[in-house]
Structure formats: C-alpha cells, structure tokens
Amino acid sequence: MRGSAGFLLCSLLLLLAPRCTEVAAQDVQPDPKTPCANWMGGAPGYPGHNGLPGRDGKDGKDGAKGEKGEEGLQGPKGDQGEIGAPGREGPRGFPGYPGQKGEKGEGAFVYRSAFSVGLKERAPHPNVPIRFSKIFYNEQSHYDASTGKFLCSIPGTYYFAYHLTVYLTDVKVSLYKKDKAVIFTYDQFQTNNVDQASGSVLLHLSSGDEVWLQVYGEGDNNGVYADNINDSTFMGFLLYPDPE
C-alpha cells in the first residue's frame, strides 16, 4: 500500500514539473519556500564579462577655495635683462641743505718776489748803481742793499717804480737792465725849492737778470736827496711768473 502511494505521489510531481518550470522561467528569483525550488534548482552560472566603461559624467562645480600654502624656497637669480630706454626727466627737486665744511686743501704754490727800499745818503755818486740801504720790504732777499741791484730769481713780468726828492741841483737818472739804460727821468732844480722826480716801467726778466737805478751823466746831475723828512724810494715786484 505504501508502494502504491509513493508511486502516485511521484506521478503527480512529474505532472506538475512543467508548471513549475514555467513559473521558474517567469520569476527571475523563485521563492525558496516552494518544493520545486529546492528540488529543481540548477548549479550557479559563471560570472559574466565586464561591461564597457560608461561615458564621462558632467563636470562638477568648483569647490571652496583652499587655505594659503606655505611659501616655497627662493629660486635661483635670473639673468640680467637688457637696459631699458631712459625714462622721462622727473620734476626738479627742492635745494638740499648745505653740507659740512670740508677740510682745508693744499694751496697752489704762490710765486713771490718784491722789494721796497729808500735812500739814506745824500748826492749819490754818478754812473754807478744807487745803493738804497733803507729797507722797507725785502722778505725774499732778491734786492742786495750792498750793490743796489735787484736780482731776478723767478722769470716773469715785473713792475718797477721810483720816486726821488730833488734838491740843490738837477737830477737825471736811468733805470738799467743788464747794463743797458731802459728809461730816463730828468728834473730841473728850482732854487729855494724841493722837487720830485719819478718813473715806472714794466719789464720781462729772465732768471739772473739785474735791475738797478743810477745817476746818468756827470756829477752836475746828481741832485737826488734824502733826509729825516724827505725820502727817495725805489721798488719793484713780480706781476706774474712765466708759465712752466
């Protein structure tokens, strides 16, 4: 009896199998609680192939600005660029304050040569240099009182002048340069009177040239005079030296 019942049950199941298969085809995932699911389930299939990559999505919106990063290391110095064109001249500025006074510099060499002398004796001898022995100025010692002559030590242009008191007789004097009379001065004496005779000249002198004053002619023309209230003077000085 049991065998007949089992046979009938199996036959019933075979009749129902096509129905279960149709239901399985309709349902992608059969209900696990059904008897057909447990009895007719097949082996798991192999994984399918990877699909093609999808298309790029749309660009997203910019995010919020990030925090400032740390300063990087200084790079190497670049090559010097070409000199640009000069710019326009700017406006003139205000005058600056005066600077401090600088140190005293070395002065240029100054050439000096000068003398000024007077007569002490009366009636000097004619035809010899008049010796003016009263010294007013002779710092460079270029005038020799013992000879009455000026000796040129600095070549250049000189100025000479004389102012003589005339008394008792006429005066005729000459200014000499290197044994040659350059200028003459004559004064005729007036009785019971004191007169003056003078002269001046510019001369170019070379080193070693001598200049002096002397009575010209005989003794009748040596009325050059000097006392405690009358002077007869002779002077000269370098105007400018020759260029080196």
Automatic annotation (TrEMBL):
Query: What InterPro entries does this protein's entry cite?
Result: C1q_dom, Collagen, Collagen/C1q_domain, Tumour_necrosis_fac-like_dom
Q: What is its main location?
A: secreted
Where does the record place Basic and acidic residues bias? 55-71
Question: Which residues belong to any copy of the C1q domain?
Answer: 108-244
Q: Where in the cell is it found?
A: Secreted
Give the UniProt keywords, A-Z: Collagen, Hydroxylation, Secreted, Signal
Its signal peptide is 1-25
Q: What is this protein called?
A: ADIPO protein
